[in-house]
Design brief:
By secondary structure, the chain is an alpha/beta fold. The protein folds into three domains: 289 residues, Aldolase class I (TIM Barrel, Alpha-Beta Barrel); 52 residues, Helix Hairpins (Orthogonal Bundle); 115 residues, Double Stranded RNA Binding Domain, CATH 3.30.160. The chain has an eight-stranded parallel beta sheet. It has a three-stranded antiparallel beta sheet with strand order 9-10-11. A hairpin with an 8-residue loop joins strand 12 and strand 13. Helix 3 runs antiparallel to helix 12 and helix 7 packs parallel to helix 8. It is globular. The N and C termini lie far apart (63 Å).
């Protein structure tokens, strides 16, 4: 046998790397006696969500008022006590949203609303007008302090940059005192924008000058936000900057040091965690990391990383799928399947050896929990390949692992797409794979494309002919009539539903309802049959082949507490959707 040493014969890339300068050559940071590497995170930081400001401004289509309110309500339900809701002086929509929160009395007394402003008097005044009447509100003032922005963007020297920060702080204080009622608990936050690129001593000097204006004390904190506005260095360098700042800041006991990290280098979470080790008290970011460019730091990941270490994150994240669905609805952006903790596939192992290790881990845990008298919390979580118990975040691990153990037995989604032109939504793929798993558990062997189709028809299309299958299902859609209301503001729908009873009994029901769209109207009409149903997700597409069937629709429904999918195929896209809903109802009652 011969062996070979790896000589690492990599070839030059030919890329123009010489045009880029090392961050530390540009902005040297020297802290040889750093202490943060020996620290441990032992408690959750203060959290601020900027989903409604930084997250919203990065969307292709910013949230409309209804979606912004839904996001706000989600953040409240998760336990956020500090929420940045916008840039009121930048748009009428942001200003109106602030005023709507006040007029609707929508802000809990223990929640602080934050609003962002540049250091210009007219913008500061408009911003403070927006928070008039809120129980707790904080004005977040910022100006860029880095050499690049001083030289290229604003043509300011250090003195002018510092003066701009001071004058802005003075305007905030004077206009707050003039405008806000005594009932408002007012706070102040200052950001030296591009802190990470700013000379450490100058960033400190600017913040000290701003503190001189605000005069923090025992009952008058100041928040100093130190952002990686664009992530440009390794996380350890940022940690050194934070520790240097915290060491040298006067009145440190009255200052809350906040980390606002972006993800340009893909290390936003690590940068945030090291900042907490280095002395930061507070974290600003977005659910699932939405934000400009590559996004803000992902608060879900930071919080559940703490949870995985036995630390209470002080955010209620025990129904991660519900959080994800709301965020996807509000932002019109999908959460990636591999997003930590919340993605569709993050608790899935396709490798057989991984699955075997996980199953053995569950077996050992089951024995340990039994020995502890059945107390799950008395036994530390220690299962291979699973950093947290999926059930703790509202996931069913058993369903997911059974689904994905079939990926090597035929590729369910691939076969459905290539042989039947059905592009199943990801969560429907998982549900169907679990059904296939049960089939192979019972009968063994491989699943052919034709067998897969027959199983799919029997499960989802009760009244579609398939070889060897008989129709089933309590309900069948016979006909529908749909019309639009005045100016198209709603849909009026009537439908005939056939109900199959024992034996040969059949009863036809004429149902009707009005809704804000055809699906909403149909679901409302079904409730007249005492069917408790709501629609959670919907997808449809045209079929390239399939005789008269020209459209397929997939609907995820909650039917009397059961969450499951239905499928409909019909020449009419709308009727295919209605059939999919009936399919879900029949499956729930089956």
């Amino acid at each position: 046998m011969k062996t070979q040493r790896n000589t690492n014969n990599q070839q030059p890339s030919g890329m123009p790397f010489g045009k880029y300068q090392s961050f530390l050559d540009r902005n040297p940071v020297w802290l040889p006696d750093r202490t943060w590497p020996d620290k441990r995170i032992t408690k959750a930081p203060r959290w601020l969500s900027t989903d409604l400001r930084d997250g919203n401004q990065s969307l292709i289509e910013p949230m409309d008022p209804a979606r912004k309110r839904k996001m706000f309500d989600l953040l409240i339900s998760l336990g956020f006590k500090e929420i940045e809701v916008g840039f009121p002086a930048a748009s009428q929509a942001d200003f109106d949203f602030c005023r709507d929160l006040v007029e609707d009395d929508a802000i809990p007394d223990d929640v602080t609303i934050s609003v962002l402003t540049q250091s210009r008097p007219e913008i500061i005044h408009r911003t403070i007008d927006a928070i008039d009447g809120m129980p707790r509100a904080s004005v977040h003032l910022y100006n860029a302090t880095s050499p690049l922005f001083r030289r290229v963007v604003f043509h300011n020297d250090k003195e002018a940059t510092l003066a701009l920060a001071v004058s802005g702080a003075q305007d905030v204080v004077s206009y707050m005192e003039k405008t806000l009622p005594d009932s408002t608990i007012a706070g102040f936050e200052y950001s030296p924008e591009f802190f990470v690129d700013t000379e450490s001593d100058f960033a400190l000097a600017v913040c000290e000058a701003v503190m001189d204006v605000w005069q923090p004390g025992p009952d008058r904190e100041i928040i100093l936000n130190l952002p990686t506005t664009v992530e440009r260095c390794t996380p350890n360098v940022y940690a050194d900057q934070i520790e240097y700042f915290c060491r040298n800041l006067t009145r440190r006991e009255y200052a809350v040091i906040s980390a606002h990290n972006h993800n340009d280098r893909g290390t936003g979470v690590a940068t945030t965690e090291l900042a907490l080790l280095a002395g930061a008290d507070r974290v600003e970011g977005c659910l699932f990391g939405h934000g400009e460019r590559t996004g803000n730091v992902d608060l879900i990941t930071v919080a559940l990383n703490l949870f995985s270490q036995g630390i209470d994150p002080q955010l209620k994240l025990d129904d991660i799928d519900s959080v994800r669905r709301t965020v996807e609805y509000c932002t019109s952006m999908d959460v990636p399947a591999r997003a930590p903790y919340g993605g569709d596939l993050v608790y899935t192992s396709f490798s057989g050896s991984h699955q075997d290790a996980i199953k053995k881990g569950f077996a050992v845990r089951k024995t340990a929990v039994a020995a502890a008298g059945g107390d799950e919390n008395a036994v530390s979580w220690d299962v291979p390949y699973l950093p947290v118990d999926p059930k703790d975040v509202g996931r069913s691990y058993e369903a997911v692992v059974r689904v994905n153990s079939q990926s090597g037995k035929g590729g369910v989604a691939y076969l459905m797409s290539t042989t039947r032109h059905l592009d199943l939504p990801r969560r429907l793929q998982l549900e169907l794979s679990q059904i296939i798993q049960r089939h192979t558990d019972r009968f063994g062997g491989e699943i052919t494309a034709e067998q897969l189709w027959q199983i799919f028809v029997d499960e989802y299309l009760p009244y579609t002919a398939a070889d060897g299958l008989r129709p089933w299902g309590k309900y069948r859609l016979l006909s529908t009539t749909l019309s639009s209301g005045d100016e198209g503001e709603h849909s009026d729908l009537s439908a005939v539903i056939r109900e199959y009873g024992p034996g040969d009994e059949q009863t036809d029901h004429l149902i009707s309802a009005q809704g804000n769209g055809p699906i909403d109207a149909f679901v409302t009409a079904l409730r007249s049959l005492d069917i408790a149903i709501s629609v959670l997700d919907y997808a449809e597409h045209a079929l390239s082949e399939g005789g008269d069937a020209t459209a397929a629709a997939y609907v995820e429904c909650n039917v009397d507490g059961q969450v499951l999918w239905g499928c409909g195929i019909d020449p009419s896209t709308m009727k295919a959707s209605f059939k999919a809903i009936v399919s879900a109802v029949n499956r729930a009652l089956r």
